[in-house]
């Protein structure tokens, strides 16, 4: 069976040289993973196709340096040797190795791993005195020869190496095994893959550039890892993630300590790292080890507002209490990703003399400048480019990198949107052909119809239930429908039917993998990137009216009076939605009006009346049930943040202007409540069936110290907020209403939202049971089940539910491991965060583009009312309800002048002083003094601060110390936002037209006709659920809700 | 080097074995003439020598005499040169005392001690080279030595260690695997009846996984027993061929 052999290793542990003998077992049968195999290898999983002209075996050096090129999907038939994989693990660390592993696992990529060192004939023991690199090359070569022989000489094998000697030594030995260099290989075989060639030259340039570098030390060397580990254990060093301050990227960085073994309580706070030298080549996001400085050198953080980026402020800037300060002594794990940088214009003086090397400025403020060696410096001027950092030696002031991909000229809409995607690590390419092949074929001539077998297997609700959907107007992807039915013995049957995506997307299929990688549909301000191919998301999985569709259903039997749940049924069903309603229509039906329901127009009058009556009755019952459910959750302490405020405003607005209300209607809440109910019950079901592998969503209670801003502000206004539990918080927020100013409550709720932690997916096996609680919704278990078209979590939950149902029949059904589920949950959490960041950034981008071409003095759009919600040393923080903007307003300019206010409220700059108090800030100058209090209304002017290298930013400037006059005339928030997006798009379109004179209208139009918003119910749901609500996002969403 | 990959994606372990494969076992019985029974075993790179004296009269203090069965005395030791770094190993340190005790318990369960009341059986085991699984190799060596001494046993006692990595049990751990943060379990089994003579585990393990580990350990032990059986038969053939001449 196995032949044993022994190898000798010389290994040093604790510095001493030790001779270690290890066994090494070899076997004859090692799977080759080639479809052209003649020897009946046991090939499971990914297999290289037989119809390629050749297979390529990269040498160790090639894999180490050019892995990025091998990642191109165009390059097929790659055989990675075990020798190379081990070298990657050894030399490049875990991150790079995981990348390689993912590559090998990815079925979209044509590459396999060959365990050459365990194959009897391809293994070659290292000879005495042979250097490591030579031995590795020999191993790879012998693996190539083995492949050639194993495939009976039918397939040519190309070994790619950067070792010149190896090329001459081996190339003539065997006729079917070619040994060539990387450059030759690309040139001969992949001439048309230009991106690969460019990447190759950029990597080699970078490598060359690295060699001829000075030896002058700019930074202290990092300590070796043994010392670091010992230091962390003994408590001398602190380990944590480096977080660079966005506004003072040059100066301040915080290390958030993690895995604290240190007992001393004063260190439980973050550690400050001041200055570039102390940061010692660590980059934002790296896992670092810091040593604390002596207490005498501890500093405080800067608390003043800074205006522009990158400007060093003088030392007299106000500082907070001194806090633990340290310097980085070592880096445990680099966390580099792809960065977007901008090439500066050539004539700027801060260029290095060597014209080959360009210092580029990353888009993200927190990343230091990156030095790129390139020959295309001239053509790349003012372009945004994706780069990767290669190294940062102690001898160089800046890290070295190489360029990967060119995005386009800075400032253009398309470039900026791509930048946002790259910066959030979102990669969305079009769905590949192979993926689309998995989809059922649907065409107008050949419409899809349910499979008879499936009709048998599913519960048929087409005739027995009145099913309808309520969505925003014009929605294409309907993933939830409702039904409600009076049962004969007086009980009620409530049903929620969700599109059965998992029927079409089988686990492990290409579509599934792609959906998992995306994890969610990405909504940007002007476009969206779907998680599933269009044929599914807007056709087969969309529960449209009047057609048969597969669904996953939850049906509850409720007691007629008490509305207690008596029984619940889960299962796969076949439904036909009778009505595809939109919110306004449903609400008007509820209000007793008689609008035209499109489905009913064709019917004869008496039947129309009967149907209409049935539908209205169903809606009323539904509302009744939803109110009851809502009340139940309210008793548990469910929070509602912005929702109420919007409604309150609706009243006032209705009274004054009697406009058609565009605020959330009760029917929104009804639908949302049913969905929450369904999610909750499904969560219970899967958690009971799989106590260790269920995917749930929890919302940890917020940390009390985060509420301090909210409490301070509320106190200034005379309210007290009890934050001890979600119930008391909800009650207090309900009461904290200023009848004169609705914005007060809105702001307080916003601050409460900011204090919240994030709701997250988790796997039940990985978290103690007491942490399952959902704080915002006040439910003990919660998950996502109702939107499988746009969230991958729901797809996972659907699968779990199916497995749970199968388990009732067959006990042996089980699901994957806890670890895999936890990994999936973490992945979805990060993707969701990225999606939200991207959405927020794109909204900001559009705001900037909107204001960029407006002259602040002449355009009335640039003047707006703002409310003060925070006081800082040299200014105030304000919120602009009209645009949902938030930002600082400076009361002291950089020259030291302060704002002076004339009697009519207009403002000017003059010399004077500022005094800051808890709830107000006073400026005093020759012309008098003015006080700015919390919740005061002022008028600001919105300016765009353009910056060639980074994203544009909006600046707010004080115009008048009085409320903006025209405020009541303006429509609120969201409408403006939608208009804003359209406006900017139109401009961009015109610009492209002007630039290229080639009409691109069709594409823009296509984008435009998509349903741009996530549907309203989902927005509502997310608000109530308080998912990520970081500062601006909450304000944005608030606007969106009013749309 | 943070965390060796003990089990690769393709299912290979560090030394090229699959998860359920044992190391190569080679053994010889009757290596010393002056003892009643002796055996030498190599399990991969772990090498052990076992010697059995007895059953004989009680030596030393008579108070330890058992009136209904034989007393078993085990002694475990490691050679100074058995590990990568030479180290003096005094007798009676905690580790070897514990190991001796475990061996004693194992063999009390396996040897038919009631056949030899008021007598004593000595089992001495020495590890010559250590590469993981010391306990199980000792048990296997001692079994062969006891058989060589002609002492009746209920069955072979076969031992094996099993580790748990990535939801998969690994049979017969080597030194690097034992040190790689694997929760390991040692089992001594009487393979024919499937009775467990000793089961030992120090590490944490989720109880859901215990069953699969026990299963794997039993299979591994049965594998070992097959090899040992072969060794015994071979030895018998040789011995009988010699005596016939």
Automatic annotation (TrEMBL), chain A:
Q: Identify the SUPFAM superfamilies for this entry.
A: Nucleic acid-binding proteins (SSF50249)
Localisation: Cytoplasm
Q: Which domain of life is it from?
A: Eukaryota
Boundaries of each RNB domain copy?
458-807
For this UniProt entry, the molecular function terms from Gene Ontology, in alphabetical order, are:
enzyme binding; exoribonuclease II activity; RNA binding
What biological processes does GO assign it?
gene expression; mRNA catabolic process; rRNA catabolic process
Q: What is its EC number?
A: 3.1.13.1
Reactions the enzyme catalyzes: Exonucleolytic cleavage in the 3'- to 5'-direction to yield nucleoside 5'-phosphates
For this UniProt entry, what's an example GO CC term?
Answer: cytoplasmic exosome (RNase complex)
- Which co-factor is required? Mg(2+)
Q: What is its main location?
A: cytoplasm
**Record region (Disordered):** 306-326
**Which enzyme type, at the first EC level?**
hydrolase
Q: Which UniProt keywords apply?
A: Cytoplasm, Exonuclease, Exosome, Hydrolase, Magnesium, Nuclease, RNA-binding
Q: Which family does it belong to?
A: Belongs to the RNR ribonuclease family.
The protein depicted here goes by the name DIS3-like exonuclease 1
TrEMBL record, chain B:
Q: Which residues form a coiled coil?
A: none
| Domain Exoribonuclease phosphorolytic: start-end pairs | 21-152, 155-219
Subunit field text = Component of the RNA exosome core complex (Exo-9), composed of EXOSC1, EXOSC2, EXOSC3, EXOSC4, EXOSC5, EXOSC6, EXOSC7, EXOSC8 and EXOSC9; within the complex interacts with EXOSC2, EXOSC7 and EXOSC9. The catalytically inactive RNA exosome core complex (Exo-9) associates with the catalytic subunit EXOSC10/RRP6. Exo-9 may associate with DIS3 to form the nucleolar exosome complex, or DIS3L to form the cytoplasmic exosome complex.
Q: Which GO terms describe its molecular function?
A: RNA binding
Compartments, record wording:
Cytoplasm; Nucleus, Nucleolus; Nucleus, Nucleoplasm
Kindly state which keywords UniProt assigns to this record, in alphabetical order: Acetylation, Cytoplasm, Exosome, Nucleus, RNA-binding, rRNA processing
| InterPro entries in UniProt | ExoRNase_PH_dom1, ExoRNase_PH_dom2, ExoRNase_PH_dom2_sf, PNPase/RNase_PH_dom_sf, Ribosomal_Su5_D2-typ_SF, RNase_PH
Entry's family note: Belongs to the RNase PH family.
Write out the GO biological process terms: nuclear mRNA surveillance; poly(A)-dependent snoRNA 3'-end processing; rRNA catabolic process; rRNA processing; U4 snRNA 3'-end processing
User: In its UniProt entry, what is this protein called?
Assistant: Exosome complex component RRP41
Q: Does the keyword Hydrolase apply?
A: no
- This protein's species is Knipowitschia caucasica (Caucasian dwarf goby)
Give GO cellular component annotations, separated by semicolons: cytoplasmic exosome (RNase complex); nuclear exosome (RNase complex); nucleolus; nucleoplasm
